[in-house]
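In this supplementary section we document a worked example of the pipeline. Step one takes a protein sequence of length 201 as its only input; no multiple sequence alignment statistics are reported here. Step two produces a three-dimensional model, which step three serialises into structure tokens for compact storage. The input and output of this example are shown verbatim.
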Amino acid sequence: MFLENTVNHQEQFGWIEVICGSMFSGKTEELIRRLRRAQFAKQRVEIFKPSIDTRYDDDSVVSHQGSEIRSTPVPAAANIRILADGCDVVGIDEAQFFDDEIVTVCNDLANAGIRVIVAGLDMDFKGQPFGPMPALMATAEYVTKVHAVCTRTGNLANYSFRKAANDNLVMLGETEEYEPLSRAAYFKAMREHQKTEKPTK
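The serialised model returned by step three reads:
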């Protein structure tokens, strides 16, 4: 991921890394892996997640595979700026659920010399860019897009298809509510979903 080492060691700025992809693609697993490496190196690490995400644990960031790391739930992005004081590395999970200020917060932290690692869904269940993620990806130095495996074709999946009958943009869920699909499988599923929604005359 890091192609070149820092040449000018007098520059004290940090940077932003974004890990994005669909549901079940391993975003949180990769986030935890990078944060644990930083902890092993005795760096000062703080991890944050939106307080609405209580699927596995109220306080920890937990991957679908069961890996977990202690975190601080926060209701808004502005809280991160205050709580991250004195850190070397800041991790943020489920960034798509934060308000747009998360972009400014991440850039402010990076400008203060902090390495910021952000994980989140790049697209919502409608296949549209999700919340602040496009802006985070645009301003990040490093973007890693991870993929799931399509449950219908076995190809790489980058769409999160919502099986549940719920049109709310934010809906926490697992395999009962979502499945990762390839582009072809996703658009086929969306066409079928739209047909069933049309009222009969």
